[in-house]
Amino acid sequence: MWPLGSDNKNNTNTNTSPQSPSDSSKVKILIVEDDEFFIQAYVTKFAQEGLVVEVATDGAMAIQKVKAISPNLIILDLMIPVKDGFLVLEELQGNPLTKNIPIIISSNLDQDASVKRGISLGAKDYFVKANISLEELVKKVKEYLPKK
């Protein structure tokens, strides 16, 4: 269902899009995900869309990356190591410097309670990975990105 790029396991914690000095004005997405399959799918698809993509594989790294790169949007898995996605969401929403960054949850947690909690904590949208195509996710992400 989701096309994969080349195996990029050694590069999941760094910028995965080519950078030039003018890239500071490009739209940046932070993907917070620990599953290599989804990382590769997201990185490949969003890079094809011309977006600068960064990856964090755990919650603590996500907080560090947000502070370092000031992404325009975050795609957040909930079941990640070190600090779960709910804690990441709470921390980002509680910080005046990061509370306005749109966060889309993409998780395998499909219980109503998880969805309600994610939205109540400030997520803009919530998708169950198994129920959304990559194309639909890209379309939804573009709705929350700054307009050029």
Which key features would you list for this structure?
alpha/beta, Rossmann fold, disordered N terminus, 148 residues
Structure description:
With 148 residues, this protein is of the alpha/beta class. It has one domain (27-133): Response regulator (Rossmann fold, 3-Layer(aba) Sandwich), CATH 3.40.50.2300. It has helices at residues 36-48, 59-69, 85-93, 112-120, 134-144; strands at residues 28-32, 52-56, 73-76, 103-107, 125-128. The protein has a 5-stranded parallel sheet with strand order 2-1-3-4-5, sandwiched between helices. Strand 3, helix 3 (85-93) and strand 4 (103-107) form a beta-alpha-beta unit. Helix 2 packs parallel to helix 3 (85-93). The longest helix has 13 residues, at 36-48. It is globular, with a radius of gyration of 14 Å. The N and C termini lie far apart (30 Å).
Global shape: globular
Proportion of strand residues: 15-25%
**What is the class in the CATH system?**
Alpha Beta
Provide the number of structural domains.
Answer: 1
Strand order of the biggest β-sheet: 2-1-3-4-5
Which secondary-structure class do the elements indicate?
alpha/beta
Please provide the count of β strands. Answer: 5
CATH superfamily: Response regulator
Task: Give the CA-CA distance, first to last residue.
Answer: 30 Å
Helices, by number, come to 5
**Rg estimate, integer Å:** 14 Å
Secondary-structure element order, N to C:
EHEHEHEHEH
Given as residue ranges, the uncertain stretches (5+ residues, pLDDT < 50) are 1-22
Average pLDDT confidence is 84
Largest sheet: 5 strands, parallel
The CATH architecture category equals 3-Layer(aba) Sandwich
Helix content: 25-40%
Enter the CATH topology name: Rossmann fold
